[in-house]
Amino acid sequence: MEFNPTKAIVHNEGCDLHYWYQGQGPLITFIPGGNGHGRQFNNIMAALSDKFTCVTFDRRQMSASQVKVNKKLSPPQQARDIRAVIKAMGFDKSILFGSSSGGIFAFTFAHDFPEMVDRLIAHEAPTITLLPDASEVFEWFLHLMEVYEIQGLEKVTIEFAHKLIGYGDEGIPQTVKPEPENPKNFWDNEFPVLLGYAPNFWRIKQNKTSIGVMRGVRCKDAFFARATEEQAKVLDCAKMLVPGHHQGFEAETKEFLPYFLSMLDTLERKKEEVETGKL
């Protein structure tokens, strides 16, 4: 379907959250990661909007959703922002798709507002504290903070990009770049929090939320891809190897889409088992 969304704004906790939506049917909320902008989901929203109402947004302090004074990231506040968008859409619950740190915010939403989750897909959420080599990765993250503070944004971007495997593969389309202020906000205010944050996965599992995790085949053994394996162990949830790199849903939408729909079907069956008392 042609992409022709309706744009709107909802005010929440001092921020005008800019969101846009298209389609009809059950709601899917697409949650951006560290790059902050929702435009990366435009392709997949267009492809799904014949069956679903699709909505995304620019996260707080990113792209169009600016505040007067930037503050350190609060994942629970990000979850409340997601809630504000869902309610502004007129829905009581939503399917969630969160990529990268957007997956972490989706998990946090599931922890804080389980009754509002229809199904949840987390695509390479970098919960490094679950990794077998968590100490090593944590100290590398601290190193990256030092690089940013001493050498600046350009240097840390180059070093961090070495872990973003697959973006340079031959024939793969480029992804939409964020506004220039987004990376600065990420390194100033988000990365220092994300390097040690993870929601209470045991509580999420206890709530029996229908969850699936995805890792991109092009990412190989990048830390954010490996984190999905550990999430699946703790949550005892569905996991799937999918086409593409860390933003494969954007760069290889056509290839990614059948896997996305298959995961939704799997999670629908799990949801029904929970509702009927079979699980």
Automatic annotation (TrEMBL):
Q: Which Pfam families match?
A: Abhydrolase_1
* GO molecular function (one): hydrolase activity
- Its domain of life reads Eukaryota
Can you say what this protein is called?
Answer: Alpha/Beta hydrolase protein
PANTHER family, alphabetized: HYDROLASE, PUTATIVE (AFU_ORTHOLOGUE AFUA_2G14860)-RELATED (PTHR43798:SF33), MONOACYLGLYCEROL LIPASE (PTHR43798)
Q: What organism is listed for this UniProt entry?
A: Chaetomium fimeti
Establish whether keyword Protein transport is in the entry: no
Domain AB hydrolase-1 intervals: 26-143
Q: Keywords, A to Z?
A: Hydrolase
Cellular component (GO) terms are:
membrane
